[in-house]
TrEMBL record:
SMART domains: RuBisCO_small. Keywords: ATP-binding, Nucleotide-binding. The keyword Nucleotide-binding applies. PANTHER family: PTHR32429, RIBULOSE BISPHOSPHATE CARBOXYLASE_OXYGENASE ACTIVASE, CHLOROPLASTIC (PTHR32429:SF11). This is Ribulose bisphosphate carboxylase small subunit. InterPro entries: ATPase_AAA_core, P-loop_NTPase, RCA-like, RuBisCO_activase_AAA_helical, RuBisCO_ssu_dom, RuBisCO_ssu_sf. Signal peptide: none annotated. Residues 294-315 are annotated as: Disordered. Residues 318-410 form the Ribulose bisphosphate carboxylase small subunit domain. Belongs to the RuBisCO activase family. Transmembrane segments: none annotated. Pfam families: AAA, RuBisCO_activase_AAA_helical, RuBisCO_small.
């Protein structure tokens, strides 16, 4: 296939890599180029095409290799691969780079539920150290005073705000947000369907039919077109014999004729893929399960007004009822946050930790329904009576907090 390389992407990558191999007096060049953006937009694949076009050799590290049961192994791996790449530059006499895919997945922290391990700290610290001293990268337990070649580092990810902030500062990492334009999408999708006989106008119409879909949607769409032939092949061979026919068979591999890649068929198949996406987004089963679990917990707990189990006097009972009754102002704040397309979560902290800002989640994250938000807040106010409770509005697109409002204080006033 004649794959398309976006000119803007190629220029950014080529300039960063070349600049790191030049000796520019008085200029501090960032060692790391961070390519970030939405999932499925072809960041890694565009890098591979650019490397092939420029004749660059790549040493790869996956984000999945940045965690280990043995503390220090991922940091040592980064140093080892960096030194190996520096040696490749020396031996091959050509440009080589170190590339880390999905850095945020391996070293980022997305919320309170993400464990921050020793390896996470060491990976961030190691990358910072290499960016500051790119020609003096040592392995643990040994020291080599001879400087090594400078190796440009390319990292990809979806959300670099989850990384340790000093790592992504401008002196160490140059950021490049990759969001293909319509022309880029038309070019890339045209490369995907290059052998299928679609005209330029049909490619443009296909892209315009699914304007919000990422690049991998169209790649998956092309794969789906073969499903009918593969299903017929399975039924012809039989479910019981398909394994013997496909794996380690003495017969020739099955051949499939070119399927129908007409625009109407592609749009129809794309609509099915889009419907599956929407079912996943609309199901929100995790929130339903959390609500059920919270409901079971509240049913199992003894009712606070039952005098046999937990006697209370009238004054304390009245205070508890007032704490679980939301004011009209609070309900209006919830409506305003949700009406802007944001989501809501709730956090609590006791008076001692309030000074250090060590807030903890009340349980359910990213609530997008008013009734769920009200019921969750009421349960939180009961569970953490005598503590600070605050409401947090979250922008799901920007993955940032837009509102933080304290709902309850230890004196019992909401």
């Amino acid at each position: 296939m004649s794959y398309y390389i976006a000119p803007r992407f190629l220029d950014k990558l080529a300039v960063h890599i070349t600049k790191n191999f030049l000796n520019l007096p008085g200029v501090r060049v960032p060692l790391i180029l961070g390519i970030h953006g939405r999932k499925g937009e072809g960041k890694t694949f565009q890098c591979e095409l650019a490397f092939e076009k420029m004749g660059i050799e790549v040493t790869l590290i996956s984000g999945g290799e940045l965690e280990s049961p043995d503390a220090g192994d991922p940091a040592r791996l980064i140093r080892l691969r960096y030194r190996e790449t520096a040696e490749l530059i020396k031996v091959r006499g050509k440009m080589c780079v170190l590339m880390i895919n999905d850095l945020d997945a391996g070293a980022g922290r997305f919320d309170e539920g993400t464990q921050y391990t020793v390896n996470t700290q060491l990976v961030n610290a190691t990358l910072m150290n290499i960016a500051d001293n790119p020609t003096d990268v040592q392995l643990p337990g040994s020291y080599d005073s001879n400087p090594i070649r400078r190796v440009p580092i390319i990292v990809t990810g979806n959300d670099f705000s989850t990384l340790y902030a000093p790592l992504i500062r401008d002196g160490r990492m140059e950021k490049f947000y990759w969001e293909p334009s319509r022309d880029d999408k038309v070019g890339i999708v045209g490369g995907i369907f290059a052998e299928d006989g679609l005209s330029q106008r049909e490619i443009e119409q296909l892209v315009d039919t699914f304007p919000k879909q990422s690049i991998d949607f169209f790649s998956a769409l092309r794969s789906r077109i073969y499903d009918i032939q593969i299903r017929d092949f399975i039924h012809k061979v039989g479910f019981e014999r398909i394994s013997l026919r496909v794996v380690n068979s003495l017969e020739a591999p099955p051949e499939f004729k070119k399927p129908d890649f007409s625009l109407s068929n592609l749009i129809e198949s794309g609509s099915f893929v889009l419907a599956e996406q929407q079912r996943v987004e609309n199901s929100q089963l995790v929130d339903e399960y959390n609500r059920l679990n919270r409901g079971r917990g509240s049913q199992a707990a003894p009712p606070p007004e039952a005098p046999v189990i937990q006697p209370v006097n009238n004054s304390s009972h009245k205070r508890e009822v007032s704490n679980t009754h939301l004011s009209l102002e609070t309900q209006e704040q919830i409506r305003q946050i949700l009406s802007q397309g944001h989501k809501i979560t709730f956090e609590h902290v006791d008076a001692r930790r309030f000074r250090t800002g060590s807030w903890q989640s009340c349980g359910t994250l990213h609530i997008d329904a008013e009734s769920d938000a009200i019921s969750t807040l009421e349960a939180c106010l009961v569970d953490y009576d005598g503590e600070y409770v605050r409401m947090v509005g979250i922008d799901p697109k920007g993955k940032r907090r837009v509102v933080e409002t304290i709902i309850q204080r230890p004196n019992g006033k909401n």
